[in-house]
Amino acid sequence: MKHAMVTPLLKKPTLDASDLGNYRPVSNLSFLSKLIERIVTAQLMDHLATFDVLPPRQSAYRPNHSTETALIAIFNDLLMSMDKGRGSALLLLDLSAAFDTVDHGILKDRLRHSCGVDGVAHDWFVSYLSRRSQSVSVGGASSASSNLAFGVPQGSVLGPILFVIYEIPLYHLVSSTNVDMHQFSDDTQYRIDFQFSPNAVQQREALSSLADCATVTEDWFTQIRVKTNMDKSIFMYVSSARSSSQLESLPLQVGDNVLAPSLVARNLGVSIDSTLSMIPQVKDVCRKAIFQLRRIGKIRKYLTKAAAKSLVQALVLSNLDYANALLFGLPNELLEHLEKIQRSAARLVVGAKKYDRITSHMKALHWLPLRQRIVFKLMVLTYRCLNGTAPRYLSSLVGRYHPRRSLRSATSGKLDAPNIKLDRYGGRSFSRAAPVLWNELPLSVTSATDLKSFKTSLKTHLFRVAYPC
User: Fold this and answer.
1) How far apart are CA 241 and CA 403, in angstroms?
2) For 9-35, what is each residue's pLDDT tens digit?
3) Phi/psi of residue 151, each to 5°?
4) In Å, how far are 57, 148, 200 from 132, measured between CA atoms?
5) pLDDT tens per residue across span 74-88
6) Do the beta carbons of residue 162 and residue 107 sit within 8 Å?
7) How many helical (H) and strand (E) elements, i.e. helices and strands, does the chain have?
8) Start and end of every Reverse transcriptase domain (predicted)?
């Protein structure tokens, strides 16, 4: 029940296989132990939600939270800052083997004092953490069993939740500063905005605040036996293309580490660039999709249409749909690259030739075109914001329209859209795009009584918009 068989997995296919630091130690546990963990996790998450224990901007392993909701909130703040003519400094902090260095004594204290887990429940967690062991399996050979005095097993159901609990005090530590923080498990990112000024005075002040926050964070992680990896941490500036000329390429110094500003960074599975043009992300998605289409194409003649459709949806369309809400408002010539991928995928499924018209085939497959898929994602999130099931950091961005005078529009169900200066920045933000798109929907869609009926009505409406004939 407490023994794990660790199988090292290379984090990325492109990494050096001879470097042991490039492997992720995934623990394979017994089926029964994971089943028990699922039951405990369900009860623990209900308890944490009831008493609002977890930090509001920690998006990992929580109902209705995801990497996508985290990214939408981060991009919203960055885009609105750019719309106001400001710049932002962004630090993506990397931790070394965070799950493996968890101190059980500190974790037990967190469970009792931060989460209110006491009595028999606390005793169960003490038993869960104690006397654990593991063996490493490589190439069919296994090592001798070794006892684990620290850490929570990667690959377990409960381990990631326990790590989130382990770092709860960090939120209270950073909230006293002027730096914004967002977390997804052990991925921690800091953001601070600044006005452009002569001699980059405000930029330097912002960097100083960010460096101080990072130093305090590094010291705090050291106290709880977690090592920050500044060599793999990424620092970058984000500003509009026009304002980038006013930026000074100042590095961020955290202790003895000096981080030079990057132009592109990988953040929660999305490639972001310093102007949020999303060109690197579109290129990455196209490259992955083309690779998968070629693989499926080699075996297409052995597949039924239904099997080919399932493969394409799982391996190609899933890549197009991930974080596609961030693509709203991008230039048509950029989105056209992704639309070509979707049309190629449809041709592969139905067996059409390269230059055949594909609209009727996509309609028969019941596939919404790319732009409608983006709108669908945004509107579902907006509906969840209005019915209270979305994360608070998204729900706070959407509000009902309340006119200053008594007007008939007060009961129209419209949403309030903030004023912006530029469509290419503020117009792409969730706080602006969500109400603008929502207010354009027919009343029959927005008046749906539950999420399932809303999705059905929304898809029907978008399908008619995409295929009017």
Assistant:
1) 36
2) 888 888 888 888 788 888 899 999 999
3) 90, 160
4) 32, 5, 53
5) 999 999 999 999 999
6) yes
7) 17, 15
8) 1-258
